[in-house]
Write a structure and sequence with these properties.
Layout lengths: L2 H12 L21 E5 L2 E4 L4 E4 L14 H11 L10 H13 L5 E5 L2 H16 L3 E5 L17 H4 L10 H4 L2 E4 L4 H10 L4 E6 L15 H12 L2 E5 L11 H6 L5 E4 L10 E5 L1 H4 L18 H16 L2 H24 L4 E5 L2 E5 L8 H5 L3 H13 L2 E2 L8 E2 L6 H17 L1
Parallel strand pairs: 3-13, 5-6, 5-7, 7-8, 8-9
Antiparallel strand pairs: 1-2, 2-3, 4-10, 9-10, 11-12, 12-14
The structure holds 4'-deoxy-4'-aminopyridoxal-5'-phosphate.
């Protein structure tokens, strides 16, 4: 038994499932999770000293790779001045100014501590601003674990077979309506069924919690139009896509305007951070300016802001990162498709920017039903084979592979070799 297995035995006695977030438990792949001791660049190391090429990248924040010196040093400097003040600091202004400069259509930012909080607060704001209760989300999209969004959710909710949660009253989720990603008519039906009652449509502009599914041409534009016609606000949940698809996120990448945008992951550089953003008119509905209440003891934490500011500043100064990571992900996706063709495995690979994922199904994956058709047992075996060959992937089908600036050609080639060997062995 390895040290990870030993630690996991202890962990399950004191942590539900041995973890502090479900997907980490490796349940979907039927093994004990690796316990990680350190990470650097494209690599992570486990308790047994095994080294892996990492495509989880802390589920997205590590766009520059792990332990990037610029971020680490910014954090080290910040820590020396104290960990938390519960008072405004200069860095909060700097990061908000930077975000409003880089991201289209946002004038103001409210920092919170997670993507969940960001989305929960943005939905509250949409309801407060419109005076409407109902929201539309998409099946298989994940927006964190707040009550009203834990309905037909993706990510680990999906992998665990519980797309909705116990403990969420029917009375609360009756206001959450579910449409189909890439199917505008399913949205129109809901808007027609509840005229003048929809506060917002919330969408992951690239669905990345059912595996990676690109928006069909016209889908996001169609949502914009439906929102304009119905008076609903369009919320882009850019917790994954923000500062990843482009500096300006999905709004810039697809040229579609959102009313409210949520961020997490990359804007914290690896520290716990989220944010919701929008026009001044909307954001000044939030306390202390307006009637929509939202607060946080550790929000805008000085150490977290130092990490986020360092990462976003680096990205602004090195915009070529976006071409690099997209080219690497494309190279990987094409190589994987070739390996699939050689072995005859029934696998399709979706890729956009630095996000990609293989689905164990022979047919194109453009909708949630296609993604759900993936053979998760095959994915589990693929995951195990890749891990044995030194490549750490998300331990569940319905997640993305994240390519970072730190992944070099040597690691990409090693990854493809592992893919070929694993597929051949399946
Ligand atoms: N929205 C999206 C699109 C996400 O992918 C996630 C988490 N993966 C969240 C919201 C929730 O963020 P957090 O886990 O930081 O609460």
């Amino acid at each position: 038994m390895g040290r990870s297995e030993e630690l996991f035995e202890q962990a399950v006695k004191v942590l539900p499932g041995g973890v502090n977030s479900p997907v980490r438990a490796y349940r979907a792949v039927g093994m004990a999770p690796r316990f990680i001791t350190k990470a650097d660049g494209p690599f992570i190391w486990d308790e047994d000293g095994e080294k892996y090429i990492d495509y989880v990248c802390s589920w997205g924040p590590m766009i520059l790779g792990h332990n990037h010196p610029v971020i680490r040093e910014a954090v080290e400097r910040a820590v020396k001045d104290g960990l938390s003040f519960g008072a405004p600091t200069r860095r909060e202004v700097e990061i908000a100014r930077l975000m409003t400069e880089l991201v289209p259509n946002i004038e103001m930012v409210r920092m919170v501590n997670s993507g969940t909080e960001a989305v929960m607060s943005a939905v509250r704001l949409a309801r407060g601003a419109t005076g409407r209760d109902k929201i539309i989300k998409f099946e298989g999209c994940y927006h964190g674990h707040s009550d009203c969004l834990l309905v037909n959710a993706g990510s680990s909710a999906l992998a665990g077979g519980h797309p909705s949660s116990a403990g969420v009253p029917e009375d609360i989720v009756k206001h959450t309506l579910t449409a189909q990603f890439n199917d505008l008519s399913s949205v129109e039906e809901l808007l027609n069924a509840w005229p003048g009652q929809i506060a917002c449509i919330i969408v992951e502009p690239v669905a990345a919690n059912m595996g990676v599914v690109n928006p069909a041409p016209g889908f996001l534009e169609g949502l914009r139009k439906l929102c304009d016609e119905s008076g609903a606000l369009l919320i882009f949940d850019e917790v994954i896509t923000g500062f990843r698809l482009a500096l300006g996120g999905a709004q810039e990448y697809f040229g579609v305007r959102a009313d409210l945008v949520t961020f997490g992951k990359i804007i914290g550089g690896g520290m716990p951070v989220g944010a919701y953003c929008g026009s001044r008119a909307l954001m000044e509905q939030v306390a202390p300016c307006g009637p929509v209440y939202q607060a946080g003891t550790l929000s805008g934490n000085p150490v977290a802001m130092a990490a986020g500011l360092a990462q976003l500043t680096y990205l602004k100064e090195h915009p070529q990162v976006y071409d690099h990571i997209a080219a690497k992900a494309k190279w990987l996706a094409e190589g994987m498709r070739q390996a699939v063709a050689e072995t005859g495995a029934p696998v399709v690979v979706n890729q956009i920017g630095s996000l990609l994922s293989p689905f164990f199904t022979p047919t194109a994956v453009t909708r949630f039903v296609d993604a759900k058709g993936s053979d998760v047992t095959m994915y589990a075996r693929y995951f195990q084979g890749m891990l044995e060959r030194g490549v750490a992937l998300a331990p569940a089908q319905f997640e993305a592979m994240f390519v970072s600036e730190a992944h070099g050609q040597a690691q990409l080639e090693a990854t493809l070799m592992a893919v070929r060997a694993t597929l051949a062995a399946l």
